[in-house]
Amino acid sequence: MAVKTDSYLMSINGEWVGSELDTLDVVNPANDEVVGTVPHGGEKEAEQAVEAAYEAFQSWSNLTAHDRAGYLKKLNQLMLDNQEELAQLMTIEMGKPINESRGEVKYAASFIEWFAEEGKRVDGDVIPTHAAGKRLHVWKKPVGVVAAITPWNFPAAMLTRKMGPALASGCTIIMKPSSESPLTAVKLMELCEQAGFPKGVVNLLTGSSSKIAKVVMENSKVRKVTFTGSTEVGKTLIRQSADQVKKLSLELGGHAPLVVLDDADIDLAVKGTVASKFRNAGQTCICANRIYVQEGVYDEFVEKLTKAVKELKVGNGTDESVDIGPLINQDGLDKVKRHVDDASSKGATVMTGGEPITDNGGVFYQPTVVKDVNQSMIVMQEETFGPVTPVEKVSSDDEAVQMANDTPYGLAAYVFTENVSRGTQLIEKLDFGIVGWNDGGPSAAQVPFGGMKESGLGREGGHEGIEEFVESQYVSIGLH
Ligand code: NAP
Question: What keywords were assigned to this record (predicted)?
Answer without folding.
Answer: Oxidoreductase
